[in-house]
Amino acid sequence: MFLFPATTLSLLLASLLLSGQQQQQLRPAQAFNIDTQSAIVHSGPEGSYFGYTVAQHRDRNQHWLLVGAPKAQTSQPRVERGGAVYRCSPTPSKACQQIPFDPNGHSMISVGNSSVQNDDKSRQWFGGSLQSSSDNGSIIACAPRYVYYTANLRRRDPVGSCWISRGSFAGFLEYSPCRINDQYGHHHLGSCQAGFASAITKDGGKIFMAAPGAHVWQGQVFEHNLRTDLSKSTSPVNPHYEDDSYLGYSLALGRFSSHSSSSPTGSSEVDVAIGMPRGNELAGKIVIADRDLRTMVNITGEQLGAYFGYALATADINGDKLDDLIIGAPLFYNQTISHKEPHFERGRVYVALQNNRHEFHLVQRIDGQKNRARFGTSIANCGDLNRDGYQDVAIGAPYDGPEHRGAVYIYMGRKQGGLSDDYDQVIYAESIKPEGHLLRSFGFSLSGGLDIDGNQYPDLLVGDYMADRAILLKARPVVNVTATLSFQPENFNLDDKTCSLPNSSTSVPCITVQYCTKYTGLNVDQSLGFVYDIRLDTENKGAPRLFFLEKEGKNEDRISVILNKDEPKCRSFKAYIMRQIRDKLTPLRVDIDYALAEYSGETYDYVTGQAKLRPVLNRSGQPNRLSKIATIQKNCGPDNVCVPDLKLTVTPNLDSYTIGNNEKLVLDVTVKNYGEDAFESMFYLTMPMTINFITINKTRSDYPICYGAKPDQMGVNVLSCDLGNPQVRNDVVKFSVITEPARGGQFTSPDFTFHAQVNSTNPELDDKHREDNQLAIGIPIRVEFQLVLSGSSQPPQVLHNTTLLQQEYQQQHQQQPDNSLIRAPRVNETQIGPEVWHVYQLQNKGPSNINDIALTILWPSKTKDGDPLLYLVDEPQTNDKARCKPAPSDSINPLNLKYVRGNPNTVTGQQQSQHNNLVIINQNQRQKRQTNLIGMESAPAQRSSSSSQPVAGEAMAQTITTTVDNSILEQLDMQSGGNSARWTLFECNVYDLGHNEIATIKIRSRLDEETISKLSLQDFDISSKMIAQVKSLPYNTSLQTMPPYVYKVETRVHTTGMSLQDRLPWWLIILAILLGTLLFALLACFLRYLGFFTRKRPPKTAEREPLTPTIWNDYQYTPGDTAL
């Protein structure tokens, strides 16, 4: 198992997946003293991974840039891409040469009479780890994939190997602690990959090699003393649950114990922090071991798979002379913040501070800026970049940036809390000119802490392995500025007009503003130019109040000066205010921003022969701005703090408001100040959008001064009134606000709610005193209306003559061979029958509007048997207050007859008499039988209609299309005793029916004469019915107790010329007689069968003695006498 291809390489090359991702908006880069314009870019052979590792190096006062290229081709015989380490000049010459650590090819041993290869250096990734002791010229470079042949040359074990240079790029020696014949196999040291990470002490006397693949990839760390040639290692075997933990993935040297802290600076007596990114059940762990590689303390990660410990660095970031730890977890994803885009692989860096007891505490977590940026892939101690006494840190995010080409973040050390909360500088690959567009993994490797260019500031070396580049970024000198700002006098007195305006000689209050600056810095010029941007009254959001006396009316200025190093210099100016300013409470703030002017010093260093970097202002500590505030003296006692006590009362002129009455709404307002002066005392009245402001009535001439209340322009209906500036103690302001509701307004609440408030720019004492500063005035709104329904039939009565119809019918029918008649097809609507209009009207007698009325009209289109009755020829006609939904397509003129338009307002008796079967003369009426026809009732004694009652309610509803409730329709249909399937239903709505407005609906039809003749009724009524339901009133008035309105329009039909035969067919009469005779005969036969017709008669013999005597008391009975 190889760690490089299986873990590290796959981790690092994942940037290839980013090419198709959408770019995110780039946060503006913040620049400090790492200069990108003077960057020196070195390039290596294409595909060599030049820049995979980098290290700053100094040997005999000469500076070098060391760059690892683990896939480079070397001159080693028979070795393919064994890898190399380059040394590059820090000068613009960009010259690089391979360092000849190992010029030999594969090792050979003698077996018998032949030489046999004993190892494999091809693709060994030499330069995969690279460290320098910085000052004394010692270097360690490793090949973690170096393969050694073990077990009688039968096994191939990637044991890894390291080479050390003792100085001057000479004295090379190899150290491979896992190259042991009897320790082959992955369960021992056969896959240890020694040199995966490495470290060397500053004095070059001791090296550390990490072997994360040892002992089933539990990992092991080796220490080797180059002076004594003695080696040590961590515990070789841990419990099985530590398998695959990768101990030794990263290394960092530091002083973490009392013994190492007391040893001389730069000695080999150091401790080591070891990264273990798959330890702690894959959450990661840092093992801190002493000089004997005994574990002292562990620091554990917090997220599974974040690779906590992938990168490590030590730095004294808080200046306490103790080494602190900075730990990278580049695969960390933020799972606690909800965003549209998941925070995958943004990365996180942890800061662990060491205390005097050598305990570590995680005090800071710094998250990456972009998905898959892998912030924390590399970490480097940059030294003290700004020379403030605290070491600073660079953190690489190789797939960050606007085009995912990489970025390096600079964080400054500080005394408290770890690194700075936000980065002090971010360097994107795109900012490296002219090769920024070629970079692809900028920041993958970092090295810092050495002053390469000799300007006494440490520089930074950045590697980009995907572009085969290494970039040297130099640090610019830092200028530290000490500045002060003062006023004389400290505050403004409006009555003390000591200054005069130059152009008008007007006396104004003024103060003198003085600002003093001094600069220091390491390796900065003796004279520097500064630019001051001065802005007056910056805290005020409105028009400025403070101005330059010499530049009347201006409150901004820019001044350039030349300062000498370590010499303070002061300048001053006068600033004034006008006597009539309104805002007397907001402090008058003066801001002075200072910056370095365009650099005018030397740009070439004749000592070093290199370009001289321009200095930069120090961003650490105080910002580059001076600020101070002045106040205006007030008549508020010795403390100059006024505490008002305003009290507000508002009284309306009406207890309630009835919509439609056109009354004015008047609010009487009283504001009194019971406390000290109230500055910019204001009254605000927030009114409903349906209220129109008319005017105010004032009791005094000066205040209030009111404005606003223009909702069409401002979007809010707020009246603002100035009550005085100041409104002095015991001052009373009284006035009346006159308003009226908007006509035709859509009211949205059950009352008119006014919110009144008074305040001043100087607050009152506490919340208790502010309770009487605001009021809510609610005026209930009443809704009253009277809905009246009416209707008529035009004509009110239709006379039908069956004799005329029969004659016409015979004329229009065609004789058939079997003597039957077939009527010719009807072509226009007049052939149906006479025209009948039903007209409905709804009138609102007010005074309030009705928002919405749902109507349903039941139209008797057919009889119960399905015969056409009132044939519809048009959709309902309405005025502008009503709208009807279209009727079903088969309901209006289903026979497609030609139209003959009529008008319900012009139908007269003369027009009725013109119809062929309409006559005016009444025929003799015959008693008609009762029928159960839909839409028809026997003529009642008196025509009926429902009377409308006024209904009162309150509130409002949104105007929508509504219908009559189904429960009401079902109830009314059952009461009519019919089948609703024979009705044609029209659904209509009446909207915004105002006072005395009328909604009209007209329905035109034709009375089908054939159906009338077929019914054989002499007198009857045909009626339609309208059901009206109020669905919405202003302010959501409750409609639960409001019954529906029902109105019926009837058309009387009188039939003449009808005989009994006309009413009953002759064959039906004969059939009835025959059926009656048959029924009688069957009944007689049945009675005879039962013996009903058989009677027992007395025998024909002589009369017997009667039961009673015929003579009694000598009286002879005669027929007719009654026996007692």
TrEMBL record:
<keyword id="KW-0325">Glycoprotein</keyword>
<feature type="repeat" description="FG-GAP">
    <location>
        <begin position="113"/>
        <end position="174"/>
    </location>
</feature>
<keyword id="KW-0401">Integrin</keyword>
<keyword id="KW-0812">Transmembrane</keyword>
<feature type="repeat" description="FG-GAP">
    <location>
        <begin position="294"/>
        <end position="360"/>
    </location>
</feature>
<feature type="domain" description="Integrin alpha first immunoglubulin-like">
    <location>
        <begin position="475"/>
        <end position="634"/>
    </location>
</feature>
<keyword id="KW-0675">Receptor</keyword>
<dbReference type="InterPro" id="IPR013649">
    <property type="entry name" value="Integrin_alpha_Ig-like_1"/>
</dbReference>
<dbReference type="GO" id="GO:0033627">
    <property type="term" value="P:cell adhesion mediated by integrin"/>
</dbReference>
<keyword id="KW-0130">Cell adhesion</keyword>
<dbReference type="Pfam" id="PF20806">
    <property type="entry name" value="Integrin_A_Ig_3"/>
</dbReference>
<feature type="signal peptide">
    <location>
        <begin position="1"/>
        <end position="31"/>
    </location>
</feature>
<feature type="repeat" description="FG-GAP">
    <location>
        <begin position="361"/>
        <end position="420"/>
    </location>
</feature>
<dbReference type="GO" id="GO:0009897">
    <property type="term" value="C:external side of plasma membrane"/>
</dbReference>
<dbReference type="InterPro" id="IPR048286">
    <property type="entry name" value="Integrin_alpha_Ig-like_3"/>
</dbReference>
<keyword id="KW-0732">Signal</keyword>
<dbReference type="GO" id="GO:0048513">
    <property type="term" value="P:animal organ development"/>
</dbReference>
<dbReference type="InterPro" id="IPR013517">
    <property type="entry name" value="FG-GAP"/>
</dbReference>
<dbReference type="GO" id="GO:0007157">
    <property type="term" value="P:heterophilic cell-cell adhesion via plasma membrane cell adhesion molecules"/>
</dbReference>
<dbReference type="InterPro" id="IPR028994">
    <property type="entry name" value="Integrin_alpha_N"/>
</dbReference>
<dbReference type="Pfam" id="PF20805">
    <property type="entry name" value="Integrin_A_Ig_2"/>
</dbReference>
<dbReference type="GO" id="GO:0005178">
    <property type="term" value="F:integrin binding"/>
</dbReference>
<dbReference type="InterPro" id="IPR013519">
    <property type="entry name" value="Int_alpha_beta-p"/>
</dbReference>
<dbReference type="GO" id="GO:0007160">
    <property type="term" value="P:cell-matrix adhesion"/>
</dbReference>
<feature type="transmembrane region" description="Helical">
    <location>
        <begin position="1066"/>
        <end position="1090"/>
    </location>
</feature>
<dbReference type="Pfam" id="PF08441">
    <property type="entry name" value="Integrin_A_Ig_1"/>
</dbReference>
<dbReference type="InterPro" id="IPR000413">
    <property type="entry name" value="Integrin_alpha"/>
</dbReference>
<feature type="repeat" description="FG-GAP">
    <location>
        <begin position="429"/>
        <end position="490"/>
    </location>
</feature>
<protein>
    <submittedName>
        <fullName>Integrin alpha-8</fullName>
    </submittedName>
</protein>
<keyword id="KW-0472">Membrane</keyword>
<feature type="domain" description="Integrin alpha second immunoglobulin-like">
    <location>
        <begin position="636"/>
        <end position="769"/>
    </location>
</feature>
<dbReference type="InterPro" id="IPR032695">
    <property type="entry name" value="Integrin_dom_sf"/>
</dbReference>
<keyword id="KW-0677">Repeat</keyword>
<keyword id="KW-1133">Transmembrane helix</keyword>
<dbReference type="InterPro" id="IPR048285">
    <property type="entry name" value="Integrin_alpha_Ig-like_2"/>
</dbReference>
<dbReference type="Pfam" id="PF01839">
    <property type="entry name" value="FG-GAP"/>
</dbReference>
<feature type="domain" description="Integrin alpha third immunoglobulin-like">
    <location>
        <begin position="823"/>
        <end position="1054"/>
    </location>
</feature>
<feature type="repeat" description="FG-GAP">
    <location>
        <begin position="36"/>
        <end position="97"/>
    </location>
</feature>
<dbReference type="GO" id="GO:0008305">
    <property type="term" value="C:integrin complex"/>
</dbReference>
<dbReference type="GO" id="GO:0007229">
    <property type="term" value="P:integrin-mediated signaling pathway"/>
</dbReference>
<comment type="similarity">
    <text>Belongs to the integrin alpha chain family.</text>
</comment>
